[in-house]
Write a structure and sequence with these properties.
The complex is a heterodimer of chains A (284) and B (136).
Chain A (H helix, E strand, L loop, with lengths): L11 H4 L33 E9 L5 H13 L2 E7 L16 E5 L11 E7 L13 E6 L15 E4 L12 E7 L13 E6 L15 E4 L10 E4 L3 H13 L12 E5 L10 H8 L1
Chain B lengths: L10 E2 L1 H4 L8 H6 L20 H10 L13 E3 L2 E6 L4 E4 L10 H16 L5 H9 L3
Antiparallel strand pairs in B: 2-3, 3-4
The chains are: A alpha/beta (284), B alpha+beta (136).
């Protein structure tokens, strides 16, 4: 164990092997030509047509059966799929890595639309916990209310709830945009690392608690700020972006965005680095 | 009855958020490693700078805007301009043949275009992984 007291300031990190450690991971030499043929979809995904439409009644299906059937329909080129009778089933529509227009005529249970990358989804009902968890890209619109952990750990895309949402919305989010037309519960933006949350209504206690980065915009009242969440200046560029995003979300187009509050990380929690665990061990 | 605590208004200015421009702290000097992001990860895209390729991509996907690409910015890896690919969990360095403009917004659009091309390429590392590990 390196003794912190005996090494000079300059060589402290070196003596602990910090500078010889590869922090960036293993380099992989993968070459590709940026001028190769234009391709907008992942390699090996289905070529679908938005104008080719079908309906799927999932009343008597389990969630895995329904999800497999959605995949099967995509493989046949269907680009618009209407799901009838979802009846609050859990884990519906998960893992879609394709361009797709998906419409649910009803409500979803827990973990609906999880781990998706690309689809445009409309849910004409409510959703349970962790809707669109880990969303990578695409647009998910919920016409009514959503449960807790709405948009947990999303990395990209637009997640829109026209009603109100439960607690811990956008927990651990690493990108993307979450837009709430109504109110949001406690611990909204808890541990968020990147991305943006827009709440047109009121928000509960501990907003943006322990947030590392990212931005939260609030139109209504804030219950209380969480640890390291602070106010920031709302710029013109923010306002223009908010107006555009609310148009995309089909809500609050006439909302006065100039009166919104902007909350960011105070960056007091930006202390952790690779040397810290070694120092802690050295102190014991 | 407990006394009401005075509200302390905390605010941070725009200058504080310019991460790429901040001075190295004593801690960063000591550890030889920068803390936090080295460029503004919250910079919003300027849609007047969108490239024809990205326009076509957004249209093909049926989205209204850049969607997930709003979070993509040009960064740098080992002193070279690069863009982070979340699917490969690594940096994709920009070919030397591509001349980079001085404007951050223009650079970000190039980064977005390059990243889409890389991710959709049959030479992307995930294609090999999929072949090796795909279960269903």
């Amino acid at each position: 164990m390196a003794n912190l007291k005996t090494v000079s300031k300059k060589s402290k990190a070196q003596s602990m092997g910090m500078h010889s450690e590869v922090l960036t991971g293993r380099t992989q030499q993968k070459f590709f030509n940026p001028d190769e043929a234009e391709n907008f979809y992942y390699f090996g995904t289905h070529d679908v047509n938005f104008n080719k439409r079908t309906e799927l009644d999932v009343k008597d299906m389990t969630a895995p059966e329904a999800n497999k059937e959605i995949d099967n329909l995509m493989s046949q080129g269907y680009g618009t799929i209407v799901i009838k009778n979802p009846q609050g089933k859990h884990s519906l529509g998960v893992g879609i890595l394709n361009k797709l227009n998906l419409i649910f005529e009803g409500s979803l249970g827990y973990f609906g639309m999880g781990s998706c990358d690309g689809p445009i989804v409309r849910i004409n009902g409510r959703v349970g916990w962790s809707c669109a968890e880990n969303l990578m890209a695409g647009k998910v619109v919920i016409e009514k209310n959503a449960g807790s952990c709405f948009g947990a750990a999303i990395r990209g895309g637009d997640l829109i709830c026209k009603g109100s949402v439960g607690a811990r919305t956008g927990i651990d989010m690493k990108g993307g945009t979450i837009i709430i037309g109504g109110d949001a519960g406690a611990f909204t933006g808890f541990m968020m690392q990147r991305g943006r949350i827009i709440i047109l209504g009121n928000v509960g206690i501990n907003l943006g608690d322990s947030m590392y980065d990212g931005t939260i915009f609030v139109g209504g009242e804030i219950g209380s700020y969480g640890s390291d969440a602070v106010d920031a200046e709302l710029t013109k560029s923010d306002q223009e972006w908010l107006k555009r995003k609310l148009r995309v979300a089909e809500i609050g187009e006439k909302f006065d965005v100039s009166k919104m509050k902007k909350i960011v990380a105070g960056k007091k929690l930006w202390n952790y680095d690779n040397l810290e665990p070694t120092e802690k061990k050295g102190a014991i | 009855m407990a006394k009401k605590k005075k509200k302390i208004s905390k605010s941070i200015t725009l200058k504080d958020q310019q991460l790429g421009k901040k001075k190295e702290t004593a801690r960063e000097k000591m550890i030889g490693q920068s803390i936090g992001y080295r460029y503004d990860v919250n910079l919003l895209p300027d849609y007047t700078k969108i490239t024809p390729f990205l326009k076509k991509y957004v249209e093909a996907m049926g989205w209204d805007d850049l969607n997930w690409l709003e979070d993509v910015h040009m960064g740098y890896e080992e002193g070279r301009p690069a863009v982070f690919c979340r699917n490969a969990n690594g940096w994709v360095t920009i070919p030397k043949s591509i001349k980079l403009p001085n404007n951050q917004q223009d650079r970000d659009m190039i980064a977005r275009e390059l990243l889409v091309k890389f991710q959709m390429s049959p030479k992307h590392p995930l294609v090999d992984l999929k072949k090796a590990y795909l279960k269903f």
